Amino acid sequence: MSAKKLSGKNSIDNTMMYAIGLWITGFKVAAADGDVDREEIATHIGMLRAIATETKSELLRSAAGLITSDHQKVGDAYMGAKQDDLEFLQQIAVLLKAESDADRNRYLFALLAIAGAVGNASGGGWLGGNKFSADEARMGAMIHAVASDMQDIDDLRAWIEKHGG
User: Fold this and answer.
1) How many other CB atoms sit within 10 Å of the CB of residue 108?
2) Domain-by-domain residue ranges, the chain?
């Protein structure tokens, strides 16, 4: 994985961009139903720690490790860029095109795994069933669609305005 910087609106290096993508995914899914709780945060942190230590992908190890070692730096880069989450995810989709198939697929799988784990971390769920709210599921799907470059960002923004989220 290269440490080069993405040109355009910001000058955040690739590792930071990938870290922000992992960060956005957990927090956006947790907040999708209007309530972020302790279990969702703990699950997100646990997923990031596991990714940082157990993945075969240097791209993911570096990105997740950056969050677990210096989350303030990631938060500052995210806030300092002054762009919305969809723009970050669209830029990540561009970066992922330059990565190997293995790294790209592992990164996209990590987004889905984080979304699923965070979405199921709290809530009701009849007899231990699916705890994932419809809003959390929709947010996870939207994040993956944009990051994997499966949907045009303008279409996605129009959908969000119409349906919320």
Assistant:
1) 19
2) 14-122+130-163
